[in-house]
Amino acid sequence: MAAPTRGERLWWILGTAAVVVYALMPVAWIVSLSLKPAAQLNDNRFLPRTVSLENYRTIFQDPQFPAALWNSLGIASLSTLLAVLLGMFAAYAIVRLDFPGRRLVLGGALSVAMFPPVAVIGPLFDLWRTVGLFDTWPGLILPYMTFTLPLAIWILAAFFRDIPWELEKAARVDGATPLQAFRRVMVPLAAPAVFTAAILVFMFAWNDFLFAIALTSTDNARTVPAAIAFFTGSSRFELPTGSIAAASVVVTLPIIVVVLLFQRRIVSGLTAGAVKG
Amino acid sequence: MKRIPAEYRLGWLLVAPAVVAMLVVTAWPVLYACWLSLFRYDLRFPDQRAFVGLDNYLSVLSSEVWWQSLGNTLIITVGSVAVELLLGFALALLMHRALFGRRTVRTAILIPYGIITVVAALAWKFAFDPTTGFVNALLGLDQAWLTERGSALFVIIFTEIWKTTPFMALLLMAGLTLVPDDLLRAARVDGAAAVQRFFRITLPLMKPAILVALLFRTLDAFRIFDTVFVQTRGAQSTESVSVVGYHTLITRLNLGLGSAVSVLIFVCVVIIAVLFVKGFGTALARGEEQP
After folding, report:
1. How far apart are CA B27 and CA B129, in angstroms?
2. Minimal CA–CA distance to B11: which of A160, A152, A100?
3. Which of B25, B133, B207, B279 has its CA 20 to 30 A from that of B215?
4. Per-residue pLDDT tens for B138-166?
5. CA distance B239 to B260
6. Which whole number is the average pLDDT over A165-183?
């Protein structure tokens, strides 16, 4: 390709800058809000005049937020673990084995991906209350696991299709035991796919709001998005903007770190699931 | 009796846990919702539970709230998906053709994708808020955005677009990689202008990718809940169908009526999916069959 002219270069720089501003502006805004002392919250300025950590102290002194953070971490991690494990079994079978119903499973997974969650919260609410799953970790882990299974299965199946499975046989011929062949050849080949699926499943569970507010009622299992939306200030009628902003920053930072570290994996996972499938 | 091959059995065994989970948490509750929707069943008055046939559906379908919320949901869906398609295309082309800074752009757009929807909705809510926000100061306006239906819907759509354009852009970018460079170069040599190349070569070849992206985003937008709930709680007649469902089921604990709403939403989603598959059937099928 011909070397870009100066004009072209300028356009690309402008485009890139526009995208970065687009993506980061609300994040910068919420960080700025979280650092404003209470008296300056309503100054309509984008940047804080003075920086204070008072909002962060407030949310961590209140038991509500640390509890929600712990719930979110635990519930999202366990959901991810289960979804990826079950997804791995299913994807392996779909890619490697020939059995009737393979396409049906993939098609079924696709329809679950399009499913409106609001259609099941009523029955789940009713059932969870009867069997004692309401407001518990498993009560949220089950729906999260299920609603992320399609994503996990599609991503894993798309990646598994490209794995040179004959390598396992080759390793066996070269004298490796089945366990060695699995550990030294198969696990390293499949690990990137599994890791990619895990990141995306975790992001889904970390993000969910509807199940979190419908199926929980206390700090017992209430996750961060639900807790933030129901934060109460010193008075009932005042929206605790500063605390909400600080809590938002705390839960957004890990996402930004993950995105910075694993940008390529996330992109390939998202596109593999949708386009390759 | 014919013996079932061992491979079949292993295959079924491996997919069984995933299939069972999906059936238990989606198929069964939908059937149960269909059943519940035929009863008068209010958790605050559980003793009055009685079979009422299709009465719940009649009440929902004759209520203004339902039609208003369906209208809102369609406005939000069409508005956000249309803008996302255009904006997403621009972003996809930028990422695809980027001479440098490709990594920066991709990393940047993943932030709106990854951020919690509730947080994004709150950030924009505070930004548009007349007392805390900067938007009015920036635009020199004095507008109470979220207290009026029209402007509130605008803020909701704006938030949706901000949050989900990156997803659209990534899917479209993957579609762009399916367009062979040689073909574009040949067209260029033959004298086709950039605009012609885009409409005659790039677009037709990307059709399957575009349809998949549109289908996913349309169904996703139709389910909108988080943004509406956080920004207005459905006030100022901005409820989406999911918000109506939630309020009926969980806030008012009316499982009978709420289940009727749930079933209707489910039916809408099926209709949208069928329309997509029917309308663009061949293109979509071809897109799905590519290995």
Report:
1. 41
2. A100
3. B25
4. 888 888 888 889 899 999 999 999 999 99
5. 17
6. 81
Which neighbouring-strand residues pair with B185?
none
Q: How many CB atoms lie within 10 A of CB A168?
A: 18
A255 to chain B, closest Cα gap in Å: 6
Say if the ipTM goes beyond 0.85.
yes
Residues A201, A80: contact at Cβ < 8 Å? yes
* Contact assignment for B11 to A97 by CB distance below 8 Å: yes
Enumerate the domain spans of chain B.
55-289
Determine the residue among A20, A81, A97, A258 to mutate to test chain B binding: the one whose Cβ has the most chain B Cβ atoms within 10 Å: A97
**DSSP label at B50?**
E
Q: Strands, DSSP E only, in A6-134?
A: none
Residue A116 backbone phi and psi in degrees, to 5:
-80, 115
Task: Report the SS3 class of residue A93.
Answer: helix
In the three-class reduction of DSSP (H, G, I as helix; E, B as strand; rest coil), residue B254 is classed as strand
Give the other-Cβ count within 10 Å of B100's Cβ. Answer: 12
Burial of A225 (0-12, 13-18, 19+ CB in 10 A): buried
| Spatial distance between the Cα atoms of B229 and B137, rounded to a whole number of angstroms | 26
Query: Which H/E stretch holds residue B221?
Result: helix B203-222
Residue located via tokens 């933030």? A228
CATH 3.40.50.970 fits A62-276, yes or no: no
**Chain A positions in Cβ-Cβ contact with residue B127 (cut-off 8 Å):** 26, 29
Entry pTM: 0.90
A19: which 2 tokens? 């995208």
Give the residues across from B42 on adjacent strands: B254
How many helices (H) and strands (E) would you count in chain A?
A: 12, 0
Query: What does the pLDDT look like over B198-257, one tens digit per residue?
Result: 888 888 888 888 888 898 899 999 999 999 999 988 888 889 999 999 999 998 899 999
Query: To the nearest whole angstrom, how far is the Cα of B150 from the nearest Cα of chain A?
Result: 22
- Distance of residue A106 Cα from the nearest chain B Cα, in angstroms: 10
* Set of chain B residues whose Cβ sits within 8 Å of the Cβ of A39: none
Backbone φ and ψ for B40, nearest 5 degrees, come out as -85, 115
CA distance A185 to A191: 10
Q: Are B68 and B244 in contact (CB under 8 A)?
A: no
Residue B224 · residue B161 · CB < 8 Å: no
Q: Which residue of A has its CA nearest to B4?
A: A99
**Pairwise CA distance, residues B215 & B279, whole Å:** 11
Q: Which CATH number fits domain B55-289: 1.10.3720.10, 1.10.10.10, 3.30.40.10, 1.10.10.60?
A: 1.10.3720.10
A256–B17 C-beta distance less than 8 A: no
